[in-house]
Backbone:
């Protein structure tokens, strides 16, 4: 009877899966002791936004972009970096929180100063992970804004009132452009933080700027679709009048109405 190919094979031969040296085994005995493979922790990779921010900071520090000069627009930066608009917006928020740039409605993003340190970045700042974290973000924002409204109303001066009025007019001018409205909205609230006169509060407001901008972008787009953006502006107007009049209660009531509108917008979006 003819022998098969398998029968012709030498008994000592091993399949490729069997040809593994003892040094390659994840768990083995060496000199009577059992050795275990060592798992190395992964190195944390920077996000796209953080990488863009680092490159832009290098350009600013090298003098390619000087204080007072305007950076390219967001779409142009996205094309140049080969990245998404979300990545560029995250980068600009990081640079803004570091105090290197400032977004001004109608003028774009301007270089403010040249710093030597790395722009600070925490991965979570790029986005809110879930509904509970969104609620926590809004709660944190309300705590910060309660302080800024109270102190801004207490410290208001004619010059401060004029600055706040100008920020409100920038917001009014952006009513027909939801993205410009988002940027003007952020600048309005940063203006309030400056009027409160506490530099740490300003930095904290800047630190939550990235997730806050994303939250605003979603709610403002929804309000614009519903034709309800004018109502949002009206709450900003009442808030501004309250601060200018030295009335923190009126300002806080307007801000709470604003937050209720934002939460209602998110609930409607989630129900879709």
Residues:
């Amino acid at each position: 009877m003819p022998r098969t190919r398998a029968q012709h094979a030498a008994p000592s031969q091993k399949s490729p899966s069997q040809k593994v040296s003892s040094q390659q085994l994840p768990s083995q005995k060496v000199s009577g002791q059992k050795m275990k493979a060592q798992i190395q922790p992964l190195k944390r990779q920077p996000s796209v936004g953080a990488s863009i921010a680092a490159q832009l900071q290098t350009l600013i520090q090298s003098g390619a972009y000087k204080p007072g000069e305007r950076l390219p627009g967001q779409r142009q930066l996205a094309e140049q970096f080969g990245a998404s608009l979300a990545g560029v917006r995250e980068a600009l928020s990081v640079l803004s929180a570091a105090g290197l740039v400032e977004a001004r409605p109608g003028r774009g993003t301007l270089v403010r100063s040249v710093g030597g340190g790395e722009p600070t970045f925490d991965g979570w700042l790029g986005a809110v992970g879930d509904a509970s974290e969104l609620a926590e973000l809004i709660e944190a924002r309300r705590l910060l804004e309660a302080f800024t409204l109270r102190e801004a109303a207490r410290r208001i001066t004619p010059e401060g009132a004029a600055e706040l009025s100008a920020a409100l007019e920038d917001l009014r001018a952006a009513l027909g452009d939801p993205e410009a409205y988002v940027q003007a909205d952020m600048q309005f609230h940063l203006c309030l933080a400056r009027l409160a006169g506490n530099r740490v509060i300003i930095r904290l407001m800047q630190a939550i700027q990235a997730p806050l901008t994303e939250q605003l972008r979603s709610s403002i787009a929804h309000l614009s679709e519903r034709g309800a953006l004018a109502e949002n502006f009206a709450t900003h107007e009442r808030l501004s009048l309250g601060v200018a009049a030295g009335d923190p209660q009126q300002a806080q009531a307007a801000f709470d109405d604003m937050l209720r509108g934002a939460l209602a917008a998110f609930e409607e979006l989630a129900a879709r």
